[in-house]
Amino acid sequence: MLQTDTYRHKGMRRQLVEELRSKNLFSEEVLEAIQRIPRHFFLDKAFEEWAYQDKPFPIGHEQTISQPFTVALMTQHLQVKKREKILEIGTGSGYQAAILATLGARIYTIERVRALYLSSKALLKEMKFPNIQFFYKEGYLGLPSFAPYDKIIVTAGAPEIPSLLLQQLSIGGIMLVPTGVEIQKLLRIERTGEKSWETKDLGNVKFVPFLAGTRPH
Protein backbone atom coordinates (compact mmCIF):
# COMPACT_ATOMS: atom_id res chain seq x y z
CA MET A 1 0.00 0.00 0.00
CA LEU A 2 1.46 3.35 -1.06
CA GLN A 3 2.12 5.95 1.59
CA THR A 4 0.46 9.34 1.11
CA ASP A 5 2.28 12.22 -0.53
CA THR A 6 1.12 15.20 1.54
CA TYR A 7 1.56 18.95 1.01
CA ARG A 8 4.27 18.74 3.67
CA HIS A 9 6.16 16.07 1.71
CA LYS A 10 5.83 18.12 -1.47
CA GLY A 11 7.12 21.19 0.37
CA MET A 12 10.14 19.30 1.71
CA ARG A 13 10.77 17.96 -1.81
CA ARG A 14 10.64 21.50 -3.22
CA GLN A 15 13.27 22.58 -0.67
CA LEU A 16 15.49 19.66 -1.71
CA VAL A 17 15.08 20.57 -5.39
CA GLU A 18 15.96 24.22 -4.64
CA GLU A 19 19.08 23.03 -2.81
CA LEU A 20 20.06 20.94 -5.87
CA ARG A 21 19.19 23.79 -8.27
CA SER A 22 21.52 26.15 -6.39
CA LYS A 23 24.49 23.97 -7.40
CA ASN A 24 23.96 24.91 -11.09
CA LEU A 25 24.75 21.36 -12.22
CA PHE A 26 21.36 19.98 -13.22
CA SER A 27 18.89 20.52 -16.05
CA GLU A 28 15.32 21.52 -15.25
CA GLU A 29 14.18 18.13 -16.63
CA VAL A 30 16.25 16.27 -14.03
CA LEU A 31 15.08 18.58 -11.21
CA GLU A 32 11.46 18.20 -12.35
CA ALA A 33 11.77 14.39 -12.20
CA ILE A 34 13.11 14.63 -8.62
CA GLN A 35 10.23 16.97 -7.74
CA ARG A 36 7.69 14.48 -9.11
CA ILE A 37 8.92 11.32 -7.36
CA PRO A 38 8.11 10.97 -3.63
CA ARG A 39 11.43 9.74 -2.20
CA HIS A 40 9.78 8.80 1.11
CA PHE A 41 7.89 6.00 -0.73
CA PHE A 42 11.26 4.25 -1.14
CA LEU A 43 12.32 4.40 2.52
CA ASP A 44 11.22 2.65 5.66
CA LYS A 45 8.54 4.69 7.48
CA ALA A 46 11.08 5.23 10.27
CA PHE A 47 13.16 7.41 7.89
CA GLU A 48 10.21 9.34 6.46
CA GLU A 49 11.10 12.55 8.34
CA TRP A 50 14.57 12.53 6.77
CA ALA A 51 13.60 11.44 3.27
CA TYR A 52 14.24 14.88 1.76
CA GLN A 53 17.63 15.47 3.28
CA ASP A 54 20.46 15.16 0.78
CA LYS A 55 21.77 11.97 2.37
CA PRO A 56 21.90 8.23 1.61
CA PHE A 57 19.91 5.90 3.89
CA PRO A 58 20.00 2.16 4.57
CA ILE A 59 17.29 0.08 2.89
CA GLY A 60 18.29 -3.26 4.47
CA HIS A 61 20.37 -6.14 3.05
CA GLU A 62 23.55 -4.00 3.38
CA GLN A 63 22.24 -1.70 0.64
CA THR A 64 21.45 2.02 0.58
CA ILE A 65 19.30 4.49 -1.32
CA SER A 66 21.76 6.97 -2.84
CA GLN A 67 21.67 10.60 -1.76
CA PRO A 68 19.55 12.77 -4.10
CA PHE A 69 22.65 14.69 -5.26
CA THR A 70 24.20 11.43 -6.52
CA VAL A 71 20.97 10.34 -8.24
CA ALA A 72 20.68 13.76 -9.92
CA LEU A 73 24.36 13.67 -10.97
CA MET A 74 24.14 10.17 -12.47
CA THR A 75 20.90 11.10 -14.24
CA GLN A 76 22.40 14.33 -15.60
CA HIS A 77 25.48 12.55 -16.98
CA LEU A 78 23.33 9.89 -18.67
CA GLN A 79 21.66 12.57 -20.83
CA VAL A 80 18.40 10.61 -20.95
CA LYS A 81 16.15 10.96 -23.97
CA LYS A 82 12.59 9.71 -24.34
CA ARG A 83 12.18 6.10 -25.51
CA GLU A 84 15.87 5.27 -24.95
CA LYS A 85 16.64 1.78 -23.66
CA ILE A 86 18.48 1.97 -20.35
CA LEU A 87 19.97 -0.98 -18.47
CA GLU A 88 20.26 -0.38 -14.72
CA ILE A 89 22.48 -2.66 -12.65
CA GLY A 90 21.31 -2.60 -9.03
CA THR A 91 17.61 -1.75 -8.64
CA GLY A 92 17.96 -1.32 -4.87
CA SER A 93 15.01 0.71 -3.60
CA GLY A 94 13.87 1.48 -7.15
CA TYR A 95 14.29 5.27 -6.74
CA GLN A 96 16.86 5.76 -9.51
CA ALA A 97 14.78 3.63 -11.91
CA ALA A 98 11.72 5.77 -11.12
CA ILE A 99 13.63 8.98 -11.91
CA LEU A 100 14.88 7.57 -15.24
CA ALA A 101 11.42 6.26 -16.15
CA THR A 102 9.88 9.66 -15.34
CA LEU A 103 12.19 11.12 -18.01
CA GLY A 104 10.52 8.79 -20.54
CA ALA A 105 13.17 6.08 -20.95
CA ARG A 106 12.47 2.34 -21.12
CA ILE A 107 14.21 0.78 -18.13
CA TYR A 108 15.52 -2.77 -17.77
CA THR A 109 16.64 -3.08 -14.16
CA ILE A 110 18.54 -5.95 -12.52
CA GLU A 111 18.70 -6.71 -8.79
CA ARG A 112 20.72 -9.54 -7.22
CA VAL A 113 19.02 -9.45 -3.76
CA ARG A 114 15.68 -11.25 -4.11
CA ALA A 115 13.94 -9.32 -1.30
CA LEU A 116 14.84 -5.96 -2.87
CA TYR A 117 13.86 -7.19 -6.33
CA LEU A 118 10.41 -8.16 -5.00
CA SER A 119 9.83 -5.00 -2.93
CA SER A 120 10.98 -2.50 -5.59
CA LYS A 121 9.03 -4.32 -8.31
CA ALA A 122 5.85 -4.22 -6.20
CA LEU A 123 6.32 -0.53 -5.33
CA LEU A 124 7.03 0.66 -8.88
CA LYS A 125 4.14 -1.39 -10.29
CA GLU A 126 1.86 0.26 -7.71
CA MET A 127 3.26 3.66 -8.74
CA LYS A 128 2.21 2.73 -12.30
CA PHE A 129 5.47 2.67 -14.22
CA PRO A 130 4.71 0.56 -17.32
CA ASN A 131 8.14 1.42 -18.81
CA ILE A 132 10.19 -0.49 -16.21
CA GLN A 133 10.99 -4.22 -16.50
CA PHE A 134 12.49 -6.03 -13.51
CA PHE A 135 14.95 -8.92 -13.43
CA TYR A 136 16.34 -10.97 -10.53
CA LYS A 137 19.80 -11.81 -11.84
CA GLU A 138 23.51 -11.26 -11.42
CA GLY A 139 24.46 -7.76 -12.57
CA TYR A 140 27.88 -8.61 -14.01
CA LEU A 141 26.21 -10.60 -16.79
CA GLY A 142 23.93 -7.74 -17.80
CA LEU A 143 20.93 -8.61 -19.93
CA PRO A 144 22.20 -9.61 -23.39
CA SER A 145 18.77 -10.73 -24.61
CA PHE A 146 17.57 -7.09 -24.76
CA ALA A 147 20.91 -5.53 -25.86
CA PRO A 148 22.13 -3.19 -27.19
CA TYR A 149 21.28 -0.38 -24.75
CA ASP A 150 21.49 3.36 -25.36
CA LYS A 151 22.62 3.85 -21.77
CA ILE A 152 23.84 1.62 -18.92
CA ILE A 153 23.96 2.77 -15.31
CA VAL A 154 25.69 0.79 -12.56
CA THR A 155 24.71 1.75 -9.01
CA ALA A 156 27.39 -0.26 -7.16
CA GLY A 157 31.17 0.08 -7.05
CA ALA A 158 32.94 -2.42 -9.32
CA PRO A 159 36.64 -3.27 -8.74
CA GLU A 160 37.15 -2.80 -12.50
CA ILE A 161 35.02 -1.98 -15.54
CA PRO A 162 32.66 -4.96 -16.21
CA SER A 163 33.62 -6.08 -19.74
CA LEU A 164 30.35 -7.93 -20.49
CA LEU A 165 28.42 -4.71 -19.91
CA LEU A 166 30.63 -2.78 -22.33
CA GLN A 167 29.65 -5.22 -25.08
CA GLN A 168 25.93 -4.55 -24.43
CA LEU A 169 26.26 -0.80 -25.04
CA SER A 170 25.18 0.52 -28.44
CA ILE A 171 27.68 2.52 -30.51
CA GLY A 172 27.27 6.12 -29.35
CA GLY A 173 25.87 4.84 -26.04
CA ILE A 174 26.98 5.93 -22.56
CA MET A 175 27.73 3.81 -19.49
CA LEU A 176 28.19 5.21 -15.99
CA VAL A 177 30.03 2.95 -13.55
CA PRO A 178 31.68 3.61 -10.18
CA THR A 179 35.04 1.80 -10.33
CA GLY A 180 37.79 1.14 -7.81
CA VAL A 181 38.39 -0.60 -4.48
CA GLU A 182 39.87 1.76 -1.89
CA ILE A 183 38.80 4.87 -3.80
CA GLN A 184 35.92 4.74 -6.28
CA LYS A 185 35.80 6.96 -9.35
CA LEU A 186 32.63 7.55 -11.32
CA LEU A 187 33.52 6.75 -14.93
CA ARG A 188 31.54 7.87 -17.98
CA ILE A 189 32.28 5.53 -20.85
CA GLU A 190 31.09 6.27 -24.37
CA ARG A 191 31.20 3.56 -27.01
CA THR A 192 32.72 5.19 -30.09
CA GLY A 193 33.00 2.12 -32.34
CA GLU A 194 32.77 -1.67 -32.52
CA LYS A 195 35.96 -2.00 -30.44
CA SER A 196 36.55 1.52 -29.13
CA TRP A 197 35.42 3.39 -26.02
CA GLU A 198 36.22 6.79 -24.53
CA THR A 199 36.43 7.10 -20.74
CA LYS A 200 36.04 10.24 -18.64
CA ASP A 201 36.66 10.43 -14.88
CA LEU A 202 33.79 12.33 -13.20
CA GLY A 203 35.37 12.34 -9.73
CA ASN A 204 35.24 10.38 -6.47
CA VAL A 205 32.04 8.63 -5.33
CA LYS A 206 31.06 6.10 -2.70
CA PHE A 207 28.77 3.18 -3.52
CA VAL A 208 28.15 -0.23 -1.97
CA PRO A 209 30.30 -2.98 -3.58
CA PHE A 210 29.24 -4.53 -6.89
CA LEU A 211 28.97 -8.22 -5.98
CA ALA A 212 28.73 -11.32 -8.16
CA GLY A 213 25.97 -13.94 -7.96
CA THR A 214 22.46 -13.58 -6.54
CA ARG A 215 21.18 -13.55 -2.98
CA PRO A 216 17.96 -15.48 -2.39
CA HIS A 217 17.28 -13.97 1.08
Number of helices: 6
Supply the CATH class. Answer: Alpha Beta
Biggest sheet statistics: 7 strands, mixed
Overall tally of domains: 1
CATH topology: Rossmann fold
Q: What overall geometry do the principal axes of the alpha carbons give? A: globular
Write down the Rg.
16 Å
Instruction: List the helices and strands in order.
Output: HHEEHEHEHEEHEEE
Q: How would you state the average pLDDT, rounded? A: 94
In short:
The protein is α/β, with parallel strands linked by helices and 217 residues long. It is 28% helix and 28% strand.
Description of the molecule:
43% of the residues are buried. This protein has a single domain (54-205), classed as Vaccinia Virus protein VP39 (Rossmann fold), CATH 3.40.50. The strands form two sheets. The chain has a seven-stranded mixed β-sheet. Strands 1-2 form a two-stranded antiparallel sheet. Helix 1 runs antiparallel to helix 2. The chain starts with 6 loop residues before the first helix and ends in a 12-residue tail after the last strand. It has six helices and nine strands; from the N terminus they run H-H-E-E-H-E-H-E-H-E-E-H-E-E-E. It is α/β, with parallel strands linked by helices.
Descriptive tags:
single chain, 217 residues, alpha/beta, Rossmann fold, 7-stranded mixed sheet, two-stranded antiparallel sheet, 9 strands
List the helices and strands and how they pair.
Blueprint: H1 7-21, H2 28-36, E1 57-60, E2 63-65, H3 68-78, E3 85-89, H4 95-102, E4 106-111, H5 114-126, E5 132-136, E6 149-154, H6 163-167, E7 169-179, E8 184-193, E9 196-205
Parallel strand pairs: 3-4, 3-6, 4-5, 6-7
Antiparallel strand pairs: 1-2, 7-8, 8-9
